[in-house]
Design goal:
Helices cover 23% and strands 43% of the residues. It has 96 residues and is of the alpha+beta class. The strands form 2 sheets. Strands 1-2-6-3 form a 4-stranded antiparallel beta sheet. It has a two-stranded antiparallel sheet with strand order 4-5. The longest helix has 12 residues, at 33-44. The chain starts with a strand and ends in a 12-residue tail after the last strand.
Amino acid sequence: MNILIKPIITEKATNDSELNNRYTFVVDKRANKLEIKGAIEAAYGVAITAVRTMNYPVQRNTKFTKKGMVTGMKGAYKKAIVQLAEGETIDFYNNL
């Protein structure tokens, strides 16, 4: 099972990583906190002190247009925020 899907690089997540040394990832929905911690430590070689997770449900929406009712859906995902140990950093841009 591939636990890490992708890092979240938004303005809010980047600000959180610069100020508080917390990084945000989209992870597999079935992964628990211990598996997430092990996967990030193995992938980036950093020490993690805390893991916070959030489950986001499926978002469905409908619009009434000239062609009738149009429905859309955004899939469910799980987000993990990891707190790194003091002095540790993750560089997402080192292999561009």
